[in-house]
Amino acid sequence: MQIQRFLFVSLLCLCTYSLWGQSSTRQTWPLQVGFGLAGNAYLGDYTETDSWMRRVYPGANFSLQKANPRRVQLQVNGGFGKFSDQFEQNPSNLPPGVSPTTFIETSFIYTDMRVKIRPWPYARLQPYLSVGAGFLFFTPRDAQGKDLPNRIDTRFLGEDYNTAIPQLPGGLGVQYRISRQFTLGLDYMYRFTPSDYLDNVGEAGTRNGFDALHGLQLTLYASLANPDQLPPMMRKRPALSNSTPVRKPKEKKPSSSKPPKEETGFGISESKTPDPVVKPPVVAPRPAVVSAAREAEARLAIQEGRYVYYKVKRKDTLESISKDFQIPTEMIRTLNFIPTGNLQKGQSLRLPDIR
Q1: Short-list 335, 303, 320, 337, CA closest to 243
Q2: What is the pLDDT of residues 297-308, one digit of tens each?
Q3: Quick one: average pLDDT of 271-283?
C-alpha cells in the first residue's frame, strides 16, 4: 500500500505541475480549487439489477484548475471513498476449490486529469462535458477484514491482478456561478476500469464485463485571487459612436519658397546645392489625457464588475486604445497584466464598461 500511495502522490504532483504551467494568451489566470462531497456506487458482480443505485456510499473529492474563460479547461482531480456489497447466493457450476466470498468491502483513492468542455464559459449557468484518464487504488477485504488479493481460493486458478489500475472517468455536469470568486458544481461521473477485480470475483462472477464506479459529486470551487483579476461575464462591446474618435494631425503643405541665390563673378545665379533636409526628431507617443470624470466612471465600473472585451487590431497601441475608449493606459495595463506596451494582433483586452 505504501507503493500505491507513492504513485498516487507522484502522479498528483506531476498533474499539478503541468496545470500550473498551462499558458493562456499572455495572461496568467489564477488557480481555482474545488472541494466537494461525492456519493459513490459500485457496479460489478455483486450488483443486483433492481438495486444498482440504492447502495450509495460517501466520499470526497478535490480539484485544481485555471480560472480562465476558455471553452476547453484542463482539470486535475483526486479523491477517496469506499463501497461494500454482499452476494445473496454463490454462483453455480464452479470448479472444485473455488469459493468466492459473499461479502466485499474496499476503500479506494483515485487521481486523474480531465478535459472539461464548456460551450458557454461566460454564462452564469454552465453545462459541461468532461473526459479524462487516471489511476485507481483499492484494497478489497472480506467480512473478517482480511485482504482478498491473498485468498486465491476465491477465484479461478491463475487469476492474478493488481490493486492499482487505470481508470477512465467521464461525466456530465453543470456549474452555477454564485459570485465572481465562487462556483457551485453538480455532476454525474462514471469511472470505467479495464478490470473485473474490484470485487475480487473475476471470472467466477455472474456479470459479464468490467467493474466500474459511478455516482454524483457536489463541488464548491473557489478562486485563489483577488476578484478583480477574475474573468467577468461577457458583455457586448459598446458602439463605436460612444467612443472618442482619434484625431489625425493635419498634414503640412510643402513650402513654395524658392531656393536661395548666390552671387558669382558673372552675375547672380541659383544655388545648385540644396539646403540639407532636417528631419523632425522622433517623439514617443504621449499617454492620452483622460478627464477626471471619465477616470472616475472607469473606476466605478471596475468596482461593480462591469467590463467589455476588445480584440487588438494590427495598428493598435495602448495609447490609441486609451484615446479611443478614454481610459488611462495604466488602468489598461493593470487590468490585462501587460508589463510592457507591446500588444499582439488578436489579443483580447478587458476594459471597463462605461455606459
Answers
A1: 320
A2: 888 888 888 888
A3: 56
